[in-house]
Fold this sequence. Notes:
The protein is an alpha/beta fold and about 290 residues long. The protein is built from 9 helices and 12 strands. It has helices spanning about 20-35, 50-60, 85-90, 105-115, 135-145, 155-170, 230-240, 245-265, 270-280, and strands at about 10-15, 35-45, 65, 80, 95, 100-105, 125-130, 150-155, 175-180, 190-195, 220-225, 245. The strands form 2 sheets. A 6-stranded mixed beta sheet has the order 2-1-3-5-6-4, sandwiched between helices. Strands 9-8-7-10-11-12 form a 6-stranded parallel beta sheet, sandwiched between helices. β5 and β6 form a beta hairpin. The site of NADPH dihydro-nicotinamide-adenine-dinucleotide phosphate has 24 residues, from α4, α5 and α8.
Amino acid sequence: MSKSFLSVLSGSFSTPADDNPTVAMMEAAYAAAGLDARYVNCDVASADLADAIIGARAMGWVGFNCSMPHKVAVIDHLDGLGESAELIGAVNCVVARDGGLIGENTDGRGFVEALRELRHPGGTHVVVLGAGGAGRAIAIEMALAGAGHITIVNRSVGRAESLATLVAERTDAEADFRPWTSAYAVPASADVVVNATSVGLGDAEALIDIDLDSLRPDLLVADVIPNPPHTAYLRAAAQRGAQTLDGLGMLVAQGAVAIELWHGVSPNRDVMRARLSEVLGLETTN
Ligand code: NDP
């Protein structure tokens, strides 16, 4: 059989895009899986999003990730939404399927996949700190994965309330919310607590406003911050004997889920994490 010189195309649309390291881990995964596929990191301004999507359709891309500021705007250009993307109201992964483009959200799925290696989500009480895009994705996916109760804690109480209402009305999980006005004490009933705020991004010493003594040894303490992954909050939790899950694992897992959706292949997560750690200048940890 003659060799094909036509690679399968995928990529990312965002702006700014130059500081997004995802391309390195995705292409490492493709190489390790022996896939003749490319992942192209594209800087796409909001005004050009429609044209970029028309281009991806014309070139037969298998799909693309959407990062800021396109996660909501992209929805108007798609042919349908997966269940969790519809609930979350945001798309970070578009998949070419049955002749159309379907919007999925792999952020929360990545979190759940990374969490499953440490704990079964079924029946858990999950405290989500933050109610932005990451908080919404995690709350909805944990509820869909069988969590029993979701507590949303956020400074802007309106966002916390609307997310708790969404979880309670559209999933089988119970939900409540708390305004975040002072050092938050994790309740004794909680099994998992996740920082889904942006506090800690690019600052290893920044610490969310939390009662550190409420981080018990039996809790799973998670963070969405991928860089630096060993945040002040996770370090404090580990010092108190709690199990920890960092945001690098979530970032790797959401990329791995995208590869499964686009190519039907399960990539090597260790290869992805090692490459990501390398380009971010981090120690390689699993
Ligand atoms: P948003 O801007 O949508 O939401 C930010 C959230 O952080 C809001 O809930 C906001 O509260 C809260 N917040 C910001 N500053 C503070 C503070 N000082 N104290 C308490 N709460 C605060 O951002 P995203 O949800 O999209 O992203 C959040 C983080 O998640 C980012 O750092 C991003 O890098 C990370 N992320 C990681 C992923 C991964 O794969 N590891 C995937 C997606 C995101 P309020 O509503 O009151 O303003």
